[in-house]
Structures are given as C-alpha cells and as structure tokens.
C-alpha cells in the first residue's frame, strides 16, 4: 500500500482532530445481538411514456405511439395500467429501460420484485426521493390532445398514485419512509407547493401507511415538503427533509427554509431529550455536485469553480444545527446523484448515498440493504444489489458487500471515515470505489485520473472554498 503524502496526512489528521473519527451517531459494536436489515432505494423516476425522446430520429414514431398510450392511461384506472404497459402496442415496456432513460414499467416491476425478495423481517423500507420521471407534465402536454395545465397536473398525480400503489403492493403493510425529490413536482424542480397540497394525503396513506401523526405529517408535507414520524415500538424518529429547497437552482423561499431549519433544530432537540435516535432522509446531499464539476478539469486536474448542491448559507446553517446534537443521528441517507457514494458531513455524521433505480445518467440500476444494530439503530454494513442492463435477461443480483469489499468492520460511520484516506492511499480500494460508483456501468461519465481529485475531495470537503482548495492541492 503506498504511503500517504504529507499533505494527505495533514488532511486526515485535521479530520481526526475535528472529531470525524468518533464514528456515526455513537454506533455500537457490530457484535451487538439482533442486527436487522432495511432496504433503501432511490431515484425511481418512473416514466410511463415510450422512448425515444427528441432529438432521436425515431421521435415521430414514438410520438404517435405515445398519443395513443396517453389516451389509454387517461381513460383507465391505475389498477389497469400494468395491463396497458404489457400490451402489444407498448413493446418498449416489455424489457427494462436502457442506460440514459428513466425507469419504465418493466424496470419498476423488476426492482420492486427484488426489493420484495430482500425484505425479510425489515420494519421499514426507506426511499430517498424522485418517484416521478423527468419532465412528466411537459411530456404529457406534448402527447395529449387539447389538455390543460390542470389536466397535466392531474396526470402527474395519477402517475404518482400508480407508483405508490406498486410500491405498496410489493412491500406489504410495512411503512415506506421517504424524502421528496426535485421531480416529485409539477415544475420538474420542486417539490412545489401545489403538488404538495394535492398529494400530502396519499403520501401519508400509500407510502407511510398511516405511520406517524397524520395531522402533523400532512401539515408539514403540505407546508414545506418535510415531515417526521416515529415508528411504533422503536426509540426512533425518522426525519425527512426537503433539501431541494436548499439548492441554488431553485427560487429561494426564505420563510419556508427558515421554518424547515427551525423545525429540524426542534426535532433533533426533542429526539435528544427523549433518548430517541434519528434516521435522517434527504434527496440532494450537501457538498459538491461531483458529476458536473468533474466533467471539465484542466490538464493538471485543476478546477476554477465548483457546482454545489446547496447554497453556502443553507449548508452552513444545516451543519451548525447538526453540530448541536452529537450522537443523536444514527443514520443519514441521500440520493439524487444516482451514484453509489458517501460523504463526511460534519464530525460524527456521515451520509450514505444510494444509487438510483433509474439508469438515466448511464448508471446501472441499484439499491442497498443496510444492516443495522438493534441497540444503536445505526448501520454496521450494507450490501449493494444491482441490475446489469447489458445482461440477458436483465435482473437484479447481489453486487458487493461493503465490509467484504473494503475489509472494514464495525459501525459503518467509523468505517466510512477510515475509508476516506484509504481511497487516496490504496490503489485497490480506489479501484473498488471507482468501479462501483456507477453500479457497474461507467460508460457515460467515467472517473478518470484527471477528475478523480474531484470525486475524492467531494467525500470529505463539504464547503465550496475548502473543496476547491483540496481539489487544486491534490
């Protein structure tokens, strides 16, 4: 194993001094009895329409087919949609989506069948955002005839109902705790207020299956796209944030953002005072958008600017809140990037990012099964499950297990902190991480020697200034 450079050693030492090496939420030893598993999936991006989309030269053919399809879907109850998708006129839905496309019905069904197979005795399923496909309302407007904006919104609601019903049928009665993503909206970069008001009840009924205080959950989803729920029989609070609202790419709503931060602060204080652990769910993670930033380093691997997931002010406020409650958060999860990665948010709080079911960014579809300690409610390991879209037939299979792949055991938070410098020092660990980042298919935006500093620094340097400094000093 190569030795750490002096610069890397200083970086790692600074993390240790800041408390990163203290673990994740005070997780107990892996030897604690009664571990249990929880499936986590993300970024389904269900798309009911038939690809290809423009500017593909076959768009004219797809246009006619989609006009007919939309007429069928509009007229049918969602219980009839599977038969429509499986019909002879909709052959594109008979096999899973190809890389670069959102999830079609075949891929959705395949993923949910795999999750169902891996449920075991799990008390919950976790989802980190984006039930709906990209541009759903806009595509509906193209494929429908003389439909209004209100009718397009109604179709979005109906599609959400279908997805939630399919998930509920797969997982049975256990609750599906979720965060909302940018595509869970009418605008494509929400969740917007009208969408939230129209769908809060079905999120509570179909996803949560009645878990949590109904009035509180529906009110907070309606007002801001976030909520908290406390599963019965567990000293646990699940906090689901609306982190899309914190992005520089959306029109800021300062009142709602301030309300969400005040609410988060109060919930973490409540959990700490009552001895509850917290699982925190979010869609867009803090830190850099590695995929976008890593596309254009210069010949020396230098970058002049970084695309950030959140605004600096929002991220600073969030990190300040986390710092007030050490040991309260047992697990933090995110999605949005569609990639298999992690981040060191703040001392003691690591963030695991689950790859997407949708292969729209060229990744293979994948999800994770986390193993959690029954005493600390913190993760001690996870296994990744992926679907190789190049295989025939395409199916979900066990991909890798974290502890085996990296030779790290114990609380997952502690292991992730230890893995960060190892990824700089060890070529074998680096190869493993880079190989699984896209869940086995990196043809669209591969990690190279030129952009590797962006991806490595994105793990441990959350602020824009420190991230840029770290990349350019790599």
Summarize the structure in words.
With 474 residues, the chain is of the alpha/beta class. It has a single domain, classed as 4-Layer Sandwich (Purple Acid Phosphatase, chain A, domain 2), CATH 3.60.21.10. It is built from 16 helices and twelve strands. The chain has helices at 6-18, 59-75, 81-85, 105-117, 136-143, 149-171, 193-207, 214-224, 254-274, 290-293, 312-323, 402-406, 412-425, 427-437, 452-460, 464-472; strands spanning 36-41, 125-127, 176-178, 227-229, 236-240, 277-281, 329-334, 341-346, 349-353, 366-372, 379-387, 396-401. A hairpin with an 8-residue loop joins strand 11 (379-387) and strand 12 (396-401). It is globular.
Compose a concise summary of this entry.
With 474 residues, the chain is an alpha/beta fold.
Give the topology, please.
Layout: H1 6-18, E1 36-41, H2 59-75, H3 81-85, H4 105-117, E2 125-127, H5 136-143, H6 149-171, E3 176-178, H7 193-207, H8 214-224, E4 227-229, E5 236-240, H9 254-274, E6 277-281, H10 290-293, H11 312-323, E7 329-334, E8 341-346, E9 349-353, E10 366-372, E11 379-387, E12 396-401, H12 402-406, H13 412-425, H14 427-437, H15 452-460, H16 464-472
Parallel strand pairs: 1-2, 2-3, 5-6, 6-7, 7-9
Antiparallel strand pairs: 1-10, 4-5, 8-9, 10-11, 11-12
Helix pairs in contact: 4-6, 5-6, 6-7, 7-8, 9-11, 13-14, 15-16
Strand order of the biggest β-sheet? 3-2-1-10-11-12
Tell me the Rg in angstroms: 22 Å
What's the CATH first level?
Answer: Alpha Beta
Tell me the number of structural domains: 1
CATH superfamily: Metallo-dependent phosphatases
Termini separation: 18 Å
The CATH architecture comes to 4-Layer Sandwich
Assign the structural class, choosing from mainly alpha, mainly beta, alpha/beta, alpha+beta, or little secondary structure. alpha/beta
The main β sheet shows up as:
6 strands, mixed
**Looking at CATH, which topology would you report?**
Purple Acid Phosphatase, chain A, domain 2
Low-confidence stretches: 1-32
Helix content: 40-55%
What is the overall silhouette? globular
Average per-residue pLDDT, rounded, comes to 89
Oligomer: single chain
Number of helices: 16
Order of helices and strands: HEHHHEHHEHHEEHEHHEEEEEEHHHHH
* Beta-strand residue fraction: 5-15%
**Can you count the beta strands?**
12
């Amino acid at each position: 194993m190569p030795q750490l450079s002096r610069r890397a050693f200083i970086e790692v030492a600074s993390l240790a001094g800041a408390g990163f090496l203290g673990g994740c939420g005070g997780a107990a030893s892996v030897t604690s009895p009664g571990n249990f598993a929880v499936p986590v999936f993300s970024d389904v991006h269900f798309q009911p329409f038939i690809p290809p989309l423009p500017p593909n030269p076959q768009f004219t053919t797809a246009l006619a087919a989609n006009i007919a399809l939309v007429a069928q879907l509009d007229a049918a109850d969602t219980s009839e949609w599977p038969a429509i998708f499986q019909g002879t006129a909709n052959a594109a839905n008979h096999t899973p989506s190809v890389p670069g496309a959102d999830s079609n019905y075949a891929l959705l069904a395949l993923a949910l069948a795999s999750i169902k197979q891996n449920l075991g005795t799990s008390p919950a399923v976790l989802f980190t955002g984006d039930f709906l496909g990209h541009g759903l309302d806009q595509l509906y407007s193209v494929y429908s005839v003389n439909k209004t904006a209100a009718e397009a919104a109604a179709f979005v609601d109906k599609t959400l109902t279908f997805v939630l019903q399919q998930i509920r049928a797969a997982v049975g009665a256990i609750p599906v705790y979720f965060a909302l993503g940018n595509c869970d909206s009418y605008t494509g970069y929400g969740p917007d207020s009208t969408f939230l008001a129209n769908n809060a009840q079905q999120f509570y009924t179909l996803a949560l299956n009645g878990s949590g205080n109904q009035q509180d959950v529906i009110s907070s989803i309606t007002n801001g796209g976030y909520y908290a729920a406390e599963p019965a029989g567990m000293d646990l609070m699940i906090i689901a944030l609306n982190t899309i609202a914190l992005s520089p790419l959306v029109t800021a709503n300062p009142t709602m953002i301030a309300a969400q931060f005040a609410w988060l602060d109060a919930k973490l204080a409540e959990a700490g005072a009552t001895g509850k652990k917290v699982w925190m769910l979010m869609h867009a993670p803090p830190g850099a958008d590695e995929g976008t930033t890593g596309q254009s380093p210069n010949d020396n691997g230098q970058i002049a600017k970084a695309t950030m997931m959140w605004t600096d002010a929002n991220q600073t406020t969030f990190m300040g809140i986390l710092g007030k409650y050490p040991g309260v958060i047992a697990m933090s999860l995110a999605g949005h990037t569609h990639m298999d990665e992690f981040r060191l948010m703040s001392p003691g709080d690591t963030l695991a990012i689950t790859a997407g079911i949708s292969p729209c960014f060229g990744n293979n579809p994948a999800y994770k099964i986390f193993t959690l300690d029954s005493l600390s409610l913190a993760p001690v390991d996870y296994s990744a499950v992926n679907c190789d879209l190049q295989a025939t037939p395409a199916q979900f299979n066990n991909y890798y297990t974290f502890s085996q792949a990296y030779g790290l055991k114990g609380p997952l938070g502690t292991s992730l902190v230890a893995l960060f410098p190892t990824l700089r020092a060890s070529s074998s660990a680096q190869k493993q991480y880079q190989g699984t980042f896209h869940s086995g298919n990196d043809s669209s935006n591969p990690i190279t020697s030129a952009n590797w500093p962006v991806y490595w620094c994105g793990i441990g340097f959350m602020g824009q200034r420190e991230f840029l400094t770290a990349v350019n000093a790599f």
